[in-house]
Amino acid sequence: MSERPRLTVLSGPSGVGKSTVVAHMRQQHPEVWLSVSATTRHPRPGEKDGVHYHFVDNDEFEKLIANGELLESAVFAGNRYGTPRAAVQEKLERGEPVLLEIDLQGARQVRESMPEAQLVFLAPPSWDELVRRLTGRGTEAQDVIDQRLAAARVELAAEPEFDTTLVNTSVEQVAAELLALLGVA
Ligand SMILES: Nc1ncnc2c1ncn2[C@@H]1O[C@H](COP(=O)(O)OP(=O)(O)OP(=O)(O)O)[C@@H](O)[C@H]1O
Ligand SMILES: Nc1nc2c(ncn2[C@@H]2O[C@H](COP(=O)(O)O)[C@@H](O)[C@H]2O)c(=O)[nH]1
Fold it and tell me: What family is reported (predicted)?
């Protein structure tokens, strides 16, 4: 691990491949710690509570916010998402690097509260390829895909706000580039 562990945010449009790249990276480097977000979204087939997300209802999410338990939060395509604060703080206090996989709204909140954070933008090779990936994943109905693509236009326009851009053409290559940014191996 790097001598200067820090918080890294990985952001980018829905379907660009954030989870795929992070999963590939963590297969080879399980020591890379990824925050598990809370969400009101329903689990997709194969997603496990406490592993992929903490799946909560709207009341529980409200309580997390009211109790100050979220480092950041956002509404994305009709669902709520947030980063549990305690686990992140604990890791940083121990001097261990932290990775958040969150949307643009969350990235902006982190930049505000933790200006030292490293913000990484994952970009698609092209718009058409992004649409292919999001549609091809087969996890959302067309109306949700449309919502996510509308958000993607906003997210792509915000790319200059990020410290670094990685283009996800090859999962293996981008995972290696992200590892380097995290200061691992
Ligand atoms: N480099 C790549 N080349 C081709 N397909 C890819 C690549 N990276 C990811 N994919 C595919 O694109 C789809 C979307 O990937 P993934 O679910 O990881 O995106 P995401 O950015 O995490 O999306 P979301 O923000 O909606 O959670 C998946 O079907 C995945 O297999
Ligand atoms: N602001 C936050 N955004 C988050 C968080 N966890 C995930 N996300 C982002 O939401 C969208 C949609 O995710 P999906 O799993 O429903 O496809 C995607 O951009 C995620 O990165 C969070 O804690 N805060």
Answer: Belongs to the guanylate kinase family.
